[in-house]
Here is the input.
Amino acid sequence: MEANTVREPLFILESGEVYRNPTEVKMSQIVLPCHANHCGELSVGQLLKWMDSTACLSAERHAGCSCVTASVDDIHFKHTIGVGQVVNIIAKVNRAFTSSMEVGILVTCEDLYADKQWKVSHAFASFVARRKEAGKVQLKQVIPRTQMEQMEYSLAAERRRMRLIHAEIITDLLSSSTSQLGECQEYQDAVPAEKTRVESVELVLPPHANHQVSTFGGQIMAWMENVATIAASRLCNAHPTLRTIDMFHFRGPSHIGDRLVLKAIVNNAFKNSMEVGVCAEAYQGGEPLRHINSAFMTFEVLDSDRKPRTLPRIRPEPVDGKRRYQEAIARKKIRLDRKYIISCKQTEVPLSVPWDQSNQVSLYTLEENQMLCFKVEMHVNVSAGQTFHLLSDLRRRQEWDRHYKECEVINQADDDDTIYRIATPSVSKGGKGQDFILLASRRIPCDSRDPYLIALRSVTLPTHPPTENYTRGEVLCAGFTIWEESSSVTKLTYYNQATPGVLPYISTDIAGLSSSFCCTFSACSHFLETNKDSLAALPPSAL
Ligand code: COA
Ligand code: ADP
Here is the structure.
């Protein structure tokens, strides 16, 4: 595997000051045999414990008091990590709300002998400052100081909204999708689901808990991962590799002395992946069970060439088993809808990139259902200045983005700020198109380390109210960052947070969504490269 070097997030501010985020906490661990499974790979449970501890310390650094894990958003693991390699974890608080904070966690793996590092995962966890006698803690605000921090700060609010309605949305999506699925398919030679059932108990001891006697969230996640791995192995009689975990939500605390009952079963097996569901409940003495957490994990089984193997099918148990079997199909679709395709610098093509074999464009999508957040990244052989000039006139976007059906300038507020009306075609047959009133602001870098920026957001103009023929769409925050990699190579990143107008794209055909992004940005690249020399001919007013 070719690996790229992951650079330290060190910034020089305009003032010349070298800046490091004050909430940043780092952890580095050499993976020893005691951290690994029998195949010599770091156990994901151990990694989750390290991620949770690092993130908790970052949250506590900001809060100045003890904090508990409230949730961890969907986690995707791009690579396994071997014994002898080093795991580097960096956590920082992206944003504080009232008593809760979002912490971003970046996990990289380092091969000391080859002097290489690569990204393994980028996760987001929420921590809550423990209540004081006086009541809920009011945290101090995070003040973003760099472009990236500003970006994460805005996205954090959106991710939070999604997290808080996550359960509701999943329930809605499950009920609408499972009703369309009909009866479970019967397969010959299917493995009965009960064969994979696991139940295991853990006694919470002081080493599993923090100084406030609450069980560490990371420890619970590790125990959950352990039973899920056993269930997955029982289906395939081989070593399974964990690829993704759906959101962990800690519904209530657990303490030293609790007995934690962990239950897992394979809910469904698809061609190359299976979904294992895990449920964690706690009790003390004769008290009733408390539901602590439920999670769904996706495993694959890799063959000797590290390609996913075909898995046996599953025969679900009646009633609950059949329901979970159907819900697993629906969740798989939701997961695909949220396809999360991460950096493609490795020559190894990441999982699930059928639309992008060339690896020139990478699509990242964040939490979405009601809300979509995209990040698309690509390199173009055009200088950063030219790229900036070509992209900052939205009227030229029609040349590469078929979603821009119409685009007119409504108001030129100043040289760098323009208001446009943009109309996009309908996504459904006979449906209404959408229109947007967008303020486009462009900024040149203050410093060679900054990118060029083009920011777009919806504004309300009394002169342009919504009309009958179009649904008024809203862009909360979108735009381009344009980084100069060399005089002729530019890294272009497009961000977009959008409201439910884009929902039809995800609910109808997500493969279409991915390929639509891919096509659009390939067209963008082509547009930039074709027009890179035409710039001089453009009148300045068009820029
Ligand atoms: N994800 C992220 N944040 C969440 C959340 C979730 N699923 N559910 C609630 N929160 C946030 C709320 O938004 C609120 O943030 P704010 O103060 O910034 O607005 C904060 O948690 C407190 O919410 P509140 O409504 O006052 O309390 P609650 O009754 O919803 O309790 C927890 C939330 C997290 C404190 C509670 O569920 C809990 O104690 N969970 C167990 C935590 C724990 O012990 N974890 C370790 C492993 S067991
Ligand atoms: P749901 O049943 O709606 O999926 P739960 O929170 O009850 O939600 O359970 C989450 C997952 O945990 C289930 O999908 C299943 O895979 C697993 N699970 C729950 N109960 C058991 C059990 N008794 N034995 C084995 N696995 C279980």
